[in-house]
Amino acid sequence: MTQKLLVVDDEESIITLLTYNLEQSGYEVNTAMDGKTALEKAKKISYDLIVLDLMIPELDGLEVCRQVRQYNQSVPILMLTAKDDEFDKVLGLELGADDYMTKPFSPRELTARVRAILRRVEHLPAGGKEKEDEEVIHLGSLTLYPHNYEVYFEGNPVDLTPKEFELLLYLIHHKGRVLTRDQLLNAVWNYEFVGDTRIVDVHISHLRDKFEPNSKKPIYIKTIRGLGYKLEEPFKR
Question: Distance between terminal CA atoms of the chain?
Answer without folding.
Answer: 49
